[in-house]
Amino acid sequence: MGAGDALSGADPYLSQAVLDLQFGHSQRVGYDVAVKVIEQLRKVGNIHKRTPEHASLGVLRSPRYPIDFSRNWFY
Predict the structure, then answer these.
(1) N-term to C-term CA, the chain
(2) Engineered SS bond to 34: which of 14, 52, 69, 70, CB 3.0-4.6 Å?
(3) How far is CA 55 from CA 22, 31, 43, 60, in A?
(4) What is d(CA 3, CA 26) in angstroms, rounded to the nearest whole number?
(5) How far from the centroid of its chain's Cα atoms is residue 64's Cα?
(6) What is the C-alpha separation between 19 and 13, in angstroms, rounded?
(7) Which domain of life is it from (predicted)?
(8) Calpha distance 66→22 (Å, rounded)
(9) How confident is the model at residue 66 (pLDDT cuts 50, 70, 90)?
(10) What DSSP state is assigned to residue 54?
């Protein structure tokens, strides 16, 4: 059971607020992981980018699809 299923009968404003909080948290965690990966890659050799870049993909806001935030950051 996902967040969309749990909130399907709830107030639409509450549902949107919870989804926005989840999405924002996942973005922050994903960014932190990407920064750590880049730090480790820099120890191995030269890399093109020093900071993660974010790709804004609207489909990620839908509660019906599983989200893999590791694919939203480009190195």
Answers:
(1) 33
(2) 52
(3) 17, 11, 25, 11
(4) 14
(5) 15
(6) 10
(7) Bacteria
(8) 13
(9) low
(10) E
CA distance 59 to 9: 21
Q: Which single residue is written with the structure tokens 């989200």?
A: 67
Alpha-helical regions (H) of the chain: 3-6, 12-44
- Beta bridge partners, 53, equal 74
Largest CA distance in the chain: 51
> pLDDT tens-digit profile of 33-65?
999 999 999 999 998 888 888 766 655 555 555
- The residues, any chain, with a CB within 8 Å of residue 70's CB and separated by 6 or more, are 30, 33
C-alpha 73 chain-centroid distance: 9
Hey, what are 18's tokens?
A: 């919870």
